[in-house]
Design goal:
four-stranded antiparallel beta sheet, mainly beta, 112 residues, seven-stranded mixed beta sheet
Length: 112
């Protein structure tokens, strides 16, 4: 079955950077659009970014555009999210998502 395992979260100061990773298994990764979504404390899920199966086309929420970069390695079945210029409002649990499936998430906390 679909398995998605996120990693790379942590505590970072405002203006800092983090790179999240997602290891995918149980499906043909290279055939599917992949997403990053996040959930801030007390809020609903927010879509962050999307990447097409071949990795050539990417999409971003306005709130992260110009600061985050999504990428994928279809040979390694991994999805990444490079996050720069982090803000306190980026604090959330981040999930990679394929269709309706998500992993357990990784916590990102931006605080001084």
């Amino acid at each position: 079955q679909v398995q998605l395992v996120e990693s790379g979260g942590g505590l970072v100061q405002p203006g800092g950077s983090l790179t999240l990773s997602c290891a995918a298994s149980g499906f043909t990764f290279r055939n599917f659009i992949m997403n990053w979504v996040r959930q801030a404390p007390g809020k609903g899920l927010e879509w962050v970014s999307k990447i097409d199966p071949d990795g050539r086309t990417t999409y971003y929420a306005n709130s992260v555009k110009g600061r985050f970069t999504i990428s994928r390695d279809n040979a390694k079945n991994t999805l990444s999210l490079q996050m720069n210029s982090l803000k306190s409002e980026d604090t959330a649990v981040y999930y990679c998502q394929k269709g309706g499936a998500r992993g357990q998430g990784t916590q990102v906390t931006v605080s001084s």
